[in-house]
User: Fold these one by one.
Assistant:
Number 1:
Amino acid sequence: MPQDEDGRPLGRHERYRGEFPIVVEGLENRFGEQIVHQNLDLKVRRGEILGVVGGSGSGKSVLMRSIIGLQVPSAGDIQVFGRSINGADPDAAIGVRNRWGVLFQGGALFSTLTVGENVQVPLKQFYPEIAPDLLEEIARYKVMLSGLPGEAACKFPAELSGGMRKRAGLARALALDPELLFLDEPTAGLDPIGAAAFDHLTRELKATLGLTVFLITHDLDTLHEICDRVAVIADRRVIAVDTVPKLMELDHPWIQEYFNGPRGRAALTAQAIDELRKHSDIPAAAQAVKALDKAEKGKA
Ligand SMILES: Nc1ncnc2c1ncn2[C@@H]1O[C@H](COP(=O)(O)OP(=O)(O)OP(=O)(O)O)[C@@H](O)[C@H]1O
């Protein structure tokens, strides 16, 4: 039975009201001789989009897999909704596991099922009593919530573009009305316009559905645009968690290279121009945007 922050049992449809729906303490993950995480601590705040960054192979996906119970850590404790998930028996853990949705890298859709049937998989698993026509209706609603046309529910994953497949994966992740959404590199492989649209959708969904989002990404635009805070993994642990501007002030070499390198600065400039555009009713802002656009055209 899921519990609230004071250990009281939560009803099936009650939502978590504590400050930190995810708390990771002293996490260690080893694969043979390789130590991926050691003494890793992280607290995710309710209602935030937490970006997770780190070099390739730094253990971002392993951290996500540990939190959702797909990777059993060698040491440490992980609490989700105030409940330790390590060593929890599967039946008891179900009270927690039906309260998150996951979009894996590449979407991980079943290729032999239509999009709608993919969305129905978790629904059937956790709510076998729902009648087939209602299942179909819920699936179609989730498909549309993810920004796809309703007809996409009848298509097979192979019939969709990369961006549409991501949205279909998102529809499945939203199937159970989760409180927590895990996204593993959602904008990887999308063109800049598709990536910006997916970011926008993530932000909208967070606001309208009251989600807490754990977002692994390499995408600097995503970090600047939609993340409330960003956790940086390096040296086998989380070395900092803060807003992007605050992180940029830190003196760590990886952080400096990542956020203040040429790509980091370009993302920052793009965000600044976006902000200015929002205020183009102010003559000085409109003038600045015009000048910057002209400079960009000159570069091209
Ligand atoms: N099941 C496994 N068995 C052995 N080693 C593994 C396993 N899963 C992950 N690893 C190793 O753990 C390390 C961290 O992997 P992980 O996928 O978490 O990195 P990442 O930070 O997500 O990288 P990327 O940004 O490239 O996706 C890598 O060296 C990887 O080879």
Number 2:
Amino acid sequence: MNELSAIVLAGGQSSRMGQDKALISVNGVPLLQFVCNIAASCANKVYIVTPWPERYQHLVLPRCEFIREVPSNSDATTHGPLVGFAQGLAEVKSEWVLLLACDLPKLRVEVLQDWAASLEIVPEDAIAALAHHAKGWEPLCGFYRRRCLPQLLDFINQGGRSFQQWLNNHSVQLLSLPTPEVLFNCNTPEDLIYLQE
Ligand SMILES: Nc1nc2c(ncn2[C@@H]2O[C@H](COP(=O)(O)OP(=O)(O)OP(=O)(O)O)[C@@H](O)[C@H]2O)c(=O)[nH]1
Ligand SMILES: [Mg+2]
């Protein structure tokens, strides 16, 4: 693998958490900074897609560049991760991009690096390489081919907003997960308490 970019999404409403998850510190490090630094260990270039880059100016984010998300006409606040991903993907130059949510406090560099090393043997027809969990693909911690952008934009223009629905129409390579904990998603105050225990 000679070149890899990453996109980190930081534009959700954090309605379950009640405060911006990207700025919550776990082990003394704000989640967005933690995830971006892991992304930067695997990728040459990291794009942070967010409607509000000014919120994160104070974080330590080497090799990261903000992409200010353009709000859709119908909803001035947020339109979900699929649209944020499409806006980031439009900037990507490498064949593969690593997509990450900002709320993954148990992410491990070695797991992402092992996955990245396996991309060379992913069949040409696969648009993505992702892990699987009980409810389907894990879309926000895995890899996508840049050339999936036109299909993604078609899906979005037809009103699609669900990663699972989009992925179900395409070939996806399965990545094996050493332990499910890597994908632990910190969505609620209870999740935070669990992390601090
Ligand atoms: N750029 C961008 N990222 C988003 C958007 N919606 C969600 N995300 C990100 O997608 C990831 C997963 O989102 P969720 O866990 O559902 O977070 P959320 O929407 O902030 O939280 P809830 O309101 O509690 O569902 C997080 O990294 C969010 O920041 C969006 O509209 N734009
Ligand atoms: Mg989440």
